[in-house]
Amino acid sequence: MSDGTPRMGFFTDTSVCIGCKACEVACKEWNDVPEDGLDWTGMSHDNSGGLGADTWRHVAFVEQRKPLGEHAPNFQREDDFRWLMASDVCKHCTHAACLDVCPTGAIFRTEFGTVVVQEDICNGCGYCVPACPYGVLDKREDDGRIFKCTLCYDRLEVGQEPACAKACPTDSIQFGELDELRHRAAGRVESLHEAGVVDARLYGEDPGDGVGGDGAFFLLLDEPEVYGLPPDPIVTTRDLSRMWKHVGLAAGALVTGVAAAFAGARR
Amino acid sequence: MSDTGSYYGKPIINPPVWAERDIAGYLFTGGLAGASSLLAAGADVTGRPALARPARVTATGAIVVSLGALIHDLGRPGRFLNMLRVFKPTSPMSMGVWVLAAYAPLTVTALASDALDRAPRTGRAAGVAAALLGAGVSTYTAALIADTAVPAWHDGHRELPYVFAGSAASAAAGAGLLAAPVTQSGPAARLAVLGAVAELAAEHAMERRLGMVAGALRGGTAGRRLKAAKALTATGALGAATIARRGRAGAALSGAALLAGSALTRFGLFEGGMASARDPRYTVEPQRARRADAAARARRDPG
Amino acid sequence: MTPRLPAPSAWPVVRQLRGDDPSARGDAAKSRRSATLQPRTADADRVVKSVCPYCAVGCALNVYVKDGKAVQIEGDPDAPHSRGRLCPKGSATLQLTTGSAREHHVLYRRPHATDWERLDLDTAMDMVADRIVAERRRGWQWEVGEGQDAKRVRRAMSLAALGGAALDNEENYLIKKLLTALGVIQIENQARVCHSSTVVGLGTSFGRGASSTMPGDLQHSDLIVLEGSNMAEAHPVAFQWVMEAKARGATVVHIDPHYSRTSALADVFVPLRAGTDIAFLGAIINHVVSNDLDFREYVLSYTNAPTIIRQEFEDAGADGLFSGFDPELRGYDPTSWQYEGAYVAAAAGQRDQEGNVRLQHGQGEHGPESRGTPTLDPTLQHPRCVWQILKRHYASYTPEMVERVCGVPQDLFRQICDLFVNNSGRERTTAFVHGVGWTQHTIGSQYIRAASILQLLLGNMGRPGGGVMAMRGHASIQGSSDIPTLFDTLPGYIPMPHAHAHDDFASFVTADAPAKGFWGDMPSYFVSLLKAWWGAAATKDDDWAFDYLPRLTGTHSTYDTVMEQVKGTVKGYMLFGQNPAVGSANARMQRLGMANLDWLVVRDFSLIESATWWKDGPEIESGEWATEDLATEVFFFPAAAHIEKEGTFTNTQRMLQWHHKAQDPVDDQRSDLWFMYHLGKRIRERLAGSEDEMDRPVLDLTWDYPTTGDHEEPSADAVLAEISGFNADGELISAYTELKDDGSTACGCWIYCGAYAGGVNQTARRTPAREQSWTGSEWAWAWPANRRILYNRASADPEGRPWSERKKLVWWDADQGKWVGEDVPDFEADKAPGYRPPPDARGPDALAGDDPFIMQADGRGWLYAPAGTASGPMPTHYEPQDSPVRNRLHRQQRNPARQIYEHPANRYHPDPGEAGADLFPYVLTTYRLTEHFTAGGMSRWTPYLAELQPELFVEVSPELAAIRELAHAGWATLVSARGAIEARVMVTDRMTPLRIDGRVVHQLGMPYHWGANGYATGDAVNELSSMALDPSSHIQEVKALTVDIRPGRRPRGPARRALVEDYCARAGITATTGVAP
Question: Which residues in chain B touch residue A41, judged by CB atoms under 8 angstroms apart?
């Protein structure tokens, strides 16, 4: 990063998430995010629905008729049911589409390698909303601007950890230097596999993936889409040069076409 | 209970928060303006004032409307000028705004010099410059919407610029046919045919590439609009090639059909994109397939 | 924001072209705001140390204050028990305290008025004082009974109080002190309806009615059995220690009727039918004793297994009745349960009342002599030794029975048994974690006894990673039991005296203080308490003012109080942060009682249902009552929040934490300390100069606490000092062992003695976790004597050596001649393991060097409780009051000694098999959600919490949904003989139909946080529950009910009651239904 500050991020280990939603509330308290309505969804214990302008941390609840995998040594499990919980958040991508497409520079990459929307700049053009492959950014209707997780940029400035990570009772949300977190996560997956949780896998930790790796990555116990995450996200701007090429060719074709329409014109 | 394919069937990406009237309208008027500038310049240099003037008027009018729509759609319109804070090649919208910042004044200048009959040299120069920029104005919007995670838009990013170029051409031609006398609208008629053919061909190619995602363009409102758009465009082109030459009425009819066709293409594609964003299948299935291929490749040649 | 272009130099495009950020995605795009961003925690004026006001984990808080206002509240990372973490409720305490939901002004409802009016605080205080003085005089009782049976009671029967359990200890102390002096005995709090069963269960088994360990010690467990506890949801921050243990390889088992977030994180989930835990635990006990799988050395030396029981004792065999049962009085005479050759008093539970029975018999006025030495048989062969009795008692509790009664498959049950056995012994330990899923039953206290027996048999008590961890639910609910705003105890669990013919201090302590152990020093504790309350007036000649204490006659629990309200005896009622109209069993009975009052005082943050029932309660909505007809006068006083006052909370691990004041309460908001102190002053002013004997306790009361500020806030610090205790020279005492029975010491609560040792507020200590051992002994202060793990003498063998290196905690260091280790020894520090007391030794001296249970009358853990419980010496399975199945283990269907109440609004369901029983075919169990707090008085008004769980829902299995045509996310109506409510339907695989005795039993799960008021609203589940209580703890049964469920919303208006009455009629329910002993 600009001044050699190490890149900071989140490792969310969903295998120890107890679905308490402390992250959602701690985030709202700290960032003064508005309460956004009393609607009972019937989606298990999830009444927040998903990430949006007024939900920067979102806990997903997935009820499945599947064995947990992890169990007491040589214990025959009767129940074939499991309840997955996972706290989702902005991924702070290495290659962030929202940041690329933002026309005002409201979105920028901080010295911590995080991606932040500057509310004093954003003019609510909304371009970042569909650009994000994870559906993180959204417009706050009564405000007009776009909001999302800032990874508590203000707290990081003075060396404090983000509000959600600090509150998390079981350390499911871990904050730290990205390299160290990736190392820790690898170890965790290994020990889970040894414990028989064959489903455990990391998501977003690979710098080689379509977004160059996430600044906020996860340990999941099922396919990403089960949690509402894209299976193989790609930063849209990866194809931007090709887009420009075709735009150029198309523009050229248009000029040529018009020229042709005039050329050989009898009258 | 949630099925395994998605999280309670909720969309994975957030659908655009753009108002259809503003942004789909912007796509249409932008295209109309850009191509009209080209038509105007062509008419100007080939001495067809009766075609040049209405084209200039169309270009100016359309660009004013499109700029208005763009600003109107902002969450904080008062902050429109923040668009000029930075110059971002990675942001089609930023590029577009900078282009518009140059294009709009040139268009107005061209029209003004013609209307007030002043500084003809400057006027023509401005007209030619606007025409060149106009080509960009009418096609960059393809990159604007393709540069998103919206499946129907992004996955069509190779063909979309040609669809838009064609659509812009037929729209401008249509306007020309409507406004210009038959005696001078010949090029417009030819442009209509070229544009329509290009648009329909490119759109066909795009839908083939989109695969299952094309479903979002075929079903529902989007499907109905695009079907109508194709019909109108084809009819308009046919008319341009035939009845437009015979009389004003035929020309007007063809022109109107082409304009309507172009507008419906933009509104159809806009809605199609929204539909593809709302349904998680369009995000999940192609990505799953892609991941499967990658895995298969990895198995074939490890390391 | 102005659309003005920035000055060229500041124009990002320029920076972009100049700087090293050409793409304008970094520094070039950084805004002025971003460049100068500061977290509000950084520029706060000060950071105030506080404690979360929600559950009893007692998470430490840092309150950031700017310009005298709290601007941020976060966890304190230094805290050894919470490590800076918070649950959603704790994370929302900023909104709770600084949000808009709190009332600021006193509100007054005139009799028959249709709305509130404003009243100035002073006037309101005077009015309340006047009413208390007048009502006290009007309803005063000097005696009960006639002639021979006449007994002095000197009490005010027409006044009552019910408190929450988030009050500071200092506040509870003033409430208990003032009201007792006024002669009020009907003083209760949330602890009654929450964990009173734990106090009886643990107290009679081990000597102290509090959790034997702390959540932080669970990290050392090899097996953690969560049963009757939804720990991950109700105590998320404490659950971190379970996850810690899991990470270290421990096995976590969750046994519960309802699959919760706790089950999701457990290794094994065992669903069982609500209300059958004793059958389940009893079968494990049977497995252990009949296969000699116990930790024999531990059992022989540390438990009463070898103790021989009297000849007269008869076990509850097939019929299910122990000896001494009197069907008339629906209670036991426990004399026949006693030890052979000795008569021991219990350390908790039924003490001075000696059961209603003996009282009614008018016999044993001095109670039993607590003398003699028990006879032991170390071979465990004697047919009347506890071991053999236990073995016989549980012989019928087989795996087959577990399957038939609990619905747990036999092989699953056997695996659970193996887990217990394989994770206990010298090298390994197992911990039990329970919550109100165990306590709230008509036999609740015996659930805890059953777990206690198992832990004693397996040798898990007093050892690292062992014990019984009672997860209590409120910030100071442990404190509300220690300094009890409870009718049956005085501070420090000294029994509240019952009315006996001509009794005095001497006979009281003779009856209740055992000859052996630390309860033998009860006279010192009691005299010191009376000195603290009545100072100079408490002299030896005046029998220590023992006569000033009002006397009990039977039970006066909050539910008895409700009946007294309905009867019209109780006319004045005070609620301190408690919402019975939603939170107590049979909410309708609560309202019927309140509607019959002359006046009601409500102190709370917001207008809870208990404050507004007269204008918008269900009876108003149904048209049954008209507000104009209701004569009750209602006073609402807005309360100060935890950050607006200082004082101590006692958390679930017996730890007293001092919370400092961060901001001032505004307008009429005041602390309960302020309210009680100034109320007391006003009352004393009114009684000043009275010659009336009844006023002497009030006038002689020590009531002079220093005050500060414009509000004249009394000093909580001074109150804590009084609680901790002084000697004759007014110096602070450092330990209860220094207390004397000669009047030279004063101590408000002997178990808290030392909280202010050395003139230092020990409860305010905050040594960071990283700077001390894992026990966290230098963080705040735990009773007794700052011991963190109770009975830790038992972590060493009889010779004082650790049972194993892996599980060492406290051991005897012969060279130093004292007990040493990680924790403060729960034993006389220099008493050698080999010490044997001389025959004439009494009290602590009578404890041998290997008697680890120092509060017990025999120094041993009680597998068999010869005294203290009102429902038998050993846990026995009885079906809940309302149950769909017959008791398969004993002929006795229900706990014969349970407390039930006859009232048209409190009808019970027919016995299973009887006509009409099938109208209420489903088992309903209630539970808590992480996002809300009990009756919702705090959480439902907090938007950040309300939005997370906005509506009441009922969890049903897909199978039941199909049977009853319940649509997911639709509505359902639930009906019992008490009421009808509606809830959203949550169809989920988390609810499993159970196969019970050859038929399928469906269970429903419902959180109970909702009521009509607040931001998130819904029906109160307690409209369905009945008042049926455990006779030892007087706790209501709300964890196992029966109901009917039907699709659609409930009827509105009169049709709602009509529906309930129709069910009762069709079920043939009468006053006699379900009331047989």
Answer: 8
Spell out the residues 6+ positions from residue C199 whose beta carbon is closer than 8 angstroms to its own: C191, C209, C210, C348, C349, C481, C493, C1033
The C-alpha of B237 sits at a distance from chain A's nearest C-alpha, in angstroms, of 13
Residue A73 pLDDT > 50: no
What H or E segment, with its residue span, contains residue C708?
A: strand C707-708
Nearest of C201, C409, C257 to residue C1040 by alpha carbon: C257
Over residues C814-832, the pLDDT tens digits come to: 999 999 999 999 999 999 9
Q: Which amino acid is at A33?
A: V
Contact C264, A45 (CB under 8 A): no
> CA torsion sign, A42 to A43 to A49 to A55?
positive
The amino acid present at B120, given as its one-letter code, is P
| Residue C904 burial (10 A CB sphere; 0-12, 13-18, 19+) | exposed
Q: Are A31 and A59 in contact (CB under 8 A)?
A: no
Q: For C468-495, what is each residue's pLDDT tens digit?
A: 999 999 999 999 999 999 999 999 999 9
How far apart, in whole angstroms, are the C-alpha atoms of residue C873 and residue C337?
7
Q: Summarize pLDDT for C930-961 with one digit per residue, the tens.
A: 999 999 999 999 999 999 999 999 999 999 99
Could you tell me if C350 and C869 are in contact, meaning their C-beta atoms sit under 8 angstroms apart?
A: yes
**What average pLDDT score do residues A43-71 get?**
88
Question: Is B1 in Cβ contact with C24 (below 8 Å)?
Answer: no
Q: Are C1003 and C923 in contact (CB under 8 A)?
A: yes
Scored b (16 or more CB within 10 A) or e, C249-270 reads ebbbbbbbbbbbbbbbbbbbbb
Distances (CA, A) of C18 to A162, B90, C9, C28, C1061: 33, 19, 10, 9, 83
Which positions 986-1025 of C are in contact with A (Cβ < 8 Å)?
986, 988-990, 992, 1015-1016
Q: Are A35 and A42 in contact (CB under 8 A)?
A: no
Cβ of A123 within 8 Å of Cβ of B86? The answer is: no
Q: Which residues contact C455 (CB under 8 A, 6 or more apart)?
A: C430, C432, C461, C466, C467, C468
Sheet hosting strand C468-470, strand order edge to edge: C268-271, C251-256, C223-227, C430-434, C468-470
Question: Which residues 159-218 of A have a C-beta within 8 angstroms of C?
Answer: 160, 163, 166-171
DSSP string of B241-291? HTHHHH-HHHHHHHHHHHHHHHHHHHHHHHHHHHHHHHSHHHHHHHHHHHH
| Gap between the Cα atoms of C545 and C591, Å rounded | 38
Chain A residues touching residue B188 (CB < 8 angstroms): 261
Strand C430-434 vs strand C223-227: parallel, antiparallel, or unpaired? parallel
Side chain identity at residue C170, one-letter code? E
| Strand, helix or coil for residue B119 | coil
Examine the pLDDT at B43 and tell me if it is beyond 80: yes
AA identity, residue C831: K
CB contact under 8 A, C6 and B78: no
* pLDDT of A74 over the 60 cut: no
Start-to-end CA span in chain A (Å) = 63
* Segment C102-121, tens digit of pLDDT: 999 999 999 999 999 999 99
C-alpha span between C391 and C288 (Å, rounded): 9
For C22, phi then psi, to 5°, come to: -60, -30
ipTM over 0.90: yes
Q: Is C981 left (phi over 0), alpha (psi -120 to 50) or beta?
A: beta
SS3 A62: strand
**Which tokens hold the place of B291?**
């991941």
The 10s digit of each residue's pLDDT in B191-213 is 999 999 999 999 999 999 999 99
3-state SS class at A20: coil
